[in-house]
């Protein structure tokens, strides 16, 4: 009987040791999972910050590109007239702020006023349609520039844009 008791005691000690080892492993795995969750939260936060920075940079690049095209393709006198036109400026601001539907609406409204810079307005309207993923309307406007304004500073750009489709 003593032998059985010793055998029972030894097997319980071995079982308890195995349970303790398994418990320790589970605790270690749990702590590792919690650390990974924390790391994941930090990475998601960093990702969001980088995503926002990328959007800001894309917006600035778009604004610079539009500004460069406008400066290169418009004479100083025409730039002054355009700058003095508040509706045109609102439309350009909407375009620069990636509010394409608003820009389209404002450029169309500007066209009803028979502006001096009708070719520029058509060009930026076409660009607004392109940025809004409405290539069909953009192409119609670009063709209008090519057909009706062959001497325009936007003629070659419209032609190039239309041919790149």
Automatic annotation (TrEMBL):
Pfam families attached to this UniProt entry: TPR_6
Coiled coil ranges: 33-67
Keywords of the record: Coiled coil
Protein known as: Uncharacterized protein
């Amino acid at each position: 009987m003593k032998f059985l008791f010793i055998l029972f005691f030894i097997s319980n000690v071995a079982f308890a040791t195995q349970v303790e080892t398994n418990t320790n492993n589970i605790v270690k795995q749990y702590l590792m999972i919690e650390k990974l969750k924390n790391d994941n939260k930090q990475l998601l936060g960093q990702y969001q910050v980088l995503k926002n920075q990328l959007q800001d940079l894309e917006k600035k690049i778009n604004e610079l590109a539009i500004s460069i095209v406008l400066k290169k393709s418009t004479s100083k006198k025409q730039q002054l007239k355009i700058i003095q036109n508040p509706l045109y400026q609102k439309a350009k601001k909407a375009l620069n702020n990636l509010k394409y539907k608003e820009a389209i609406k404002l450029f169309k409204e500007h066209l009803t006023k028979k502006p001096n810079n009708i070719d520029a307005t058509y060009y930026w309207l076409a660009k607004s349609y392109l940025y809004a993923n409405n290539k069909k309307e953009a192409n119609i406007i670009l063709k209008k520039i090519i057909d009706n304004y062959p001497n325009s500073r936007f003629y070659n750009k419209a032609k190039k844009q239309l041919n790149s489709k």
